[in-house]
Amino acid sequence: MTKTPRAFSSLLVANRGEIAVRIIKSAKDNGFRTVAVYSSADTNAPHVKLADDAVQIGDAPVGESYLCPDKIIAAAKATGAEAVHPGYGFLSENADFAKACEDAGLIFVGPSADSIDLMGDKARAKRHMIKSGVPCVPGYEEEDQSDTTLLAAAKKIGYPLMVKAAAGGGGRGMRLVENADDLPGALSQARSEAENAFGSGTLILEKAIINPRHVEIQVFGDTQGNIIHLFERDCSVQRRHQKIIEEAPCPVMTDDLRQKMGSAAVAAAKSVNYVGAGTVEFLLDDDGNFYFLEMNTRLQVEHPVTELITGLDLVAMQLRIASGLPLDIEQSDIPMHGHAIEVRLYAEEAANDFLPATGTISLWHPASGPGVRVDAGIATGYDVSPFYDPMVAKVMAHGETREIARQRLIKALNETALFGVPNNRDFLIDALGKEAFVSGRATTAFIAQEYGNSISKPTPLSEHYAAAAVLQFQAARKKAQASATAMPDDLLNWTNAAPIATPFQYENEEGPVDVTLTPSGDNTYKADVNGTEICLTVEDTSAPWAKIKIAERHVILLYQILPAGQIAISMHGASFMLTDLTQVIKNKDTAGGDGMVCSAMHGLLLEVCVESGQHVKAGDTLAVVEAMKMQHEIKASSDGTVEAVTGVAGKQIAAGELILQITTPD
């Protein structure tokens, strides 16, 4: 139904992080006055500083701030904002919020509440798609949610199958179940996670399509009934059912398949009178069969790859449509130029089952260059808190070919520094270089097939230690020179006796690494690293960059000198925080010992699954911690008996805090 255009000039962005920054920038470029909202944890966040106005709406927990419709609407009213953009996540797919905005006289930048309500419920959406003739995965999506009914339905569907939260997304409330014995536990965990994340424990079951590609179609609809698609994105590389690498176009897409999938996506959107930006997601198998997965009634995290290949600003298009104007481009006129790939930078420990991480970013240095784009909501000194999703930035590259885009993206990641908090940058560099990805053969099984059940933690090379020593030595020398009286540069490293060797000892899990650094000329050094001699010539130390000739090879690296003998260094595609033990007094006492079970992250201790005196076996679930919207099971590493339980279910817990102690057999 045609809607009378309603111009607006001010926009409140009901979100945070990189998406809030991205929306605010586009809105300001298009002449809109912008308003940010923020929690107490985001007082100094980049999106707050970028907006024309900002309102604090509550404390750090999302239930007291970003998930409070009344506070957001009150902020819009107080600042004179006429429209609200929800971004993604939080309230972006909350039909009640869209309706509340409308009732308050605000323009909601998104589809109607009815469309959100229907497509936001996976069960109802799937039933609707089946009626509309869109191919769907066999499964169970009915209203009866009793365990008895779900167990019976699973038996008919067959294993393996997926348990999914009907109201959710982003991998939350989702479990892959291999056999009937594992289903009851999976139902309980998925239901609990879904209730905490989305306020609804309704589940659906689907036959697991083995090793598919995850391919989605970007759609746009206007208030005049016009609907188009902006081609596809391949989002197959995922961990925990959450995407980490996305690209456009899909490497195996053909013109015929694109036409079929695009038509199906448009039909899906038309069936619900869709308005605004949306994404219809499909699973694509090896035979070219595709199945409806879900429809996201919002802007997607990975929308920039579509922007890079089409040259269109999707946020600007959203704002145009929200004002009631028609789409200004037809399907046949949409361009497709080259290839684009995006990676998501997460604050997490890839080698520790991708556990979310928190901390203070000591240095954020994003890359730049031809075809490179970085969307970020962080800055140097910014605290990554446990209250929000661990994604902190996105790095993208565009090129005339997929290979050019891939090489540009690897180079961009190598030139990106994210120091101070564990992150997945190095893992992304490695993943982009795997042959399966290089050849375009990656499916949703990519990580499992390439890395197995564990990802090796990279270890520093001798060159890393040698470079760290010379950089720390020069930093200390520069500091000493600054405090000296009239010390000329040409006397640095000079001595009338034998060259002075400076010892370093770096902390390492396998034992300390001893480095002896000896000047051998102007900015030239010899480093003995555990008996291996390495020659170095320092050519430039303009932080955060350094250029060092190491054994006849000119190396450009990123670094940051930190207090207490620490140095962050990124070189050869790997980043490390190294500590020189000669500069610190290390406390050898540990906070526990064998059998001490501690939380690996800040979060909510959701459940303690054992009690004092109980015998446990290796692999048993001991506790469940909820952090960054995900539930993480803590399992026993060996057989033993629970000696004491100190953690209290329902209470916040800090990283490293003791939950319980297990006595293991001698």
Automatic annotation (TrEMBL):
Keywords: ATP-binding, Biotin, Ligase, Nucleotide-binding. Residues 584-663 form the Lipoyl-binding domain. CDD domains: biotinyl_domain. Residues 7-452 form the Biotin carboxylation domain. Residues 126-323 form the ATP-grasp domain. InterPro entries: ATP-grasp, BC-like_N, Biotin_BS, Biotin_carboxylase_complex, Biotin_carboxylation_dom, Biotin_COase_C, Biotin_lipoyl, CPAse_ATP-bd. Its cofactor is biotin. One of its GO terms (molecular function) is metal ion binding. Gene3D superfamilies: 2.40.50.100, ATP-grasp fold, B domain. This is Geranyl-CoA carboxylase subunit alpha. It comes from Kordiimonas sediminis.
